[in-house]
Amino acid sequence: MPIDEQLAAAVDVARVAVDEAADAGTVGDHVRAVEDGERLVSHQFACTKPGYAGWYWSVSVSRAPDSDRVTVNDVVLLPGDDAIIAPPWTPYKERIRPGDLSPGDVLPPDEDDIRLVPSWTAGDGDEQTPDRFFAREVGLGREWVLSFEGRELAADRWQEGEQGPDAAIAQQASGVCHSCGFMVSLAGPLSDRFGVCANGMANDDGKVVSFDHGCGAHSGARLSRSASAQALPPPVFDTVGVDEVEHY
């Protein structure tokens, strides 16, 4: 369908409308006329407002059938293809990252968080975990405890993180945490895979470490002979030789 010639020619009408709506000096040259529908056309004008590079003013005009009267519908400021616009809004729960919480901040879990289950249901079908452990969970009065999915998510995160076997420091360690005297055992369903480092001189002091993690501060670490201090012979006082000293 060809564009309505009468509406396409109504540049002056659109110009008057946009000049009234916009701040003085923010409307540039007429860019083009775009057909939006039957007897509906938008006139686009460049925007010269500071901070709005790539934006344009759009004036929508229309007319009734068998009428020569042009009606202005609205005037809006719209972003063009090259306009700088704000990124799409992202809810805070999708933007927040570990370590973002500050004192006083609150981050409640989702109502359907798969990581948590009612404490009285935890352990159903888990043959590897003693029932008395879950009885103790209920006895503590906690309403929610980790679900099976929550445990596995935590285990995968720890195993693949900086306290896991793939960390650079673990790749060159002299021993693994499972055999280190500074490792403190955990209780519960993750106790067979993780512990806590208690070596105040180690990088991971106070952190959960996987059994196959390691570092140079292992309790069994020893310096090699080449790295240890070398015993030097006693000094000798030379009473025979004469040192020659140049005189200036």
TrEMBL record:
InterPro entries on file: DUF3027
Source organism, top-level taxon: Bacteria
One Pfam assignment: DUF3027
This protein's name: DUF3027 domain-containing protein
Organism: Aeromicrobium ginsengisoli
